[in-house]
Every structure is written in C-alpha cells, then in structure tokens.
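Each field is set out underneath.
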Amino acid sequence: SSSAISYDFTDIKAFAGKSFYRIKQVDKDGKTAISSIIEINKASKNVLLTVSLYPNPVKDQLNLVIGSVIPQTVVLVVTDIFGRQVSQKVQKLSLGNNYVALDVNQLSRGSYVINFISENGSSVIQKFVKQ
C-alpha cells in the first residue's frame, strides 16, 4: 500500500521479564524490510519465580535453581505428605537464576513438598522424595 497502515499484536505467551521483538515486512513484490530490535520488560504479579530441583530422589542435599524476574525475598516451606511443616527457610534472591543448597539430612525417608512463596503472595510448589 502507498499509505501508512497501523497494526498491533499482543504476545499472549510472553515471558515475564525481558523479551526482544522485531518485525519483518514482506511487500507484494517480495521485497523485505526488517525493523530494529526492541526490548519489552514485562513485570508479572503472577509469575515471579521459576524453580527446578535436583537430584530427585535426594539423600543429603537438595539443589534448587530459583529463577526470579526481580530481586526479592522468598520463603521456602517444606511439608511432609500429611501437610505438616518440617522446615522453613527465608531466602534472598537476586535477578536471574539463584542457586540454593537445601540440607535434607534430618528428614525421614518419604515424599515432601516445597512451597516457594514470593513477596507478592504467589507461590510455586515442587515435590521431592527423600531416600
């Protein structure tokens, strides 16, 4: 078209934190143009943490990788399969991946749940097995 046309797009699967976008335009005659890259920083009240843990099952030390989109303090609450709290730890996180070693030596054999509670009250739950 010879006149300006405006378009918009909403990325409904955008990650919390930084995302990078650019546009590729293809004309009817096949010519292409690529825009410069822009950065969008999406803060989310719902997804402030990503968590992975290993090894699972665990014997002595459970390694946690906690990804955070903002610097914050989280509370780690470990409960047994009956819902009884067996330990609690307050952990300060920086932006990005945070590596935390959790001593589980004192726990009896069995299944457990860790609830990672962020400052805004959202939480992530992971299960693990103590050998």
Q: What stands out?
A: The radius of gyration is 22 Å.
